[in-house]
Batch of 2 targets.
Target 1
Amino acid sequence: AAGGKDELKQAAKRVRESKRKPRAPKPEPAEMDFEEADEDEIASRDADVLSALEQLGEDAPALRRRVVALTRENDTLRAQLAALRKQLEAL
């Protein structure tokens, strides 16, 4: 009886799978084009970040400096990524 039960389960599974629509392939993540920011843009973004923190009432100067540093690091990494993508396209 146990063998018949397992066979029945497998047959039901095959029927379900045959009726199931094939999965659509996952779309590839869109590549984002980042251009290197110039010093004026970086300074402007730094000022925007500091202004936003002041509006939030944050009184921790260390936190503000950390956010600015991370924002600059993010800009640098985006520029490096853009340069690497250009190199990859050239291959």
Target 2
Amino acid sequence: MALSRKKWNNILIIACVFMVAVLTFIDSKTNKMPDDAHALFDDSNQLTQLQLNGVWLNKSNGIWRCADSVLNCQSLATAWEALMVSPVQMTAGEIQSLPAYVTLSIAINHQQQAQHWQYYPQAGYLQSTSQNWYQIPPSLRSELEPVISSQ
């Protein structure tokens, strides 16, 4: 039994509406910030300096400066300043299965020495110096990577 042109059009319209509904649902679930997410830095603990993989950012007189090779200095600094994280409990098995970490040096406005955290960019985890684990929401992870000049 062959379908008429009108029936095929109706099938295509229904499929398109279904696809839009599915994509809207997925978007609403992935872009939503977790309920337990909180700011890593606030007014009393302001980020003043950050070093990641040899790339540095420094805030002086309210202006961010970066290594010359960083092309997205302002957006990178803003993303790290406004970073939201959720505390998580990690098992030994989960920790062992994580990919390689990057050492992240963070300087806070009222502390004289920098803190050295472990950052797992592919998995979206941060481990503090006090061994606390934090998860970065997937919607924020791509903004935390520096764009490096090829020169």
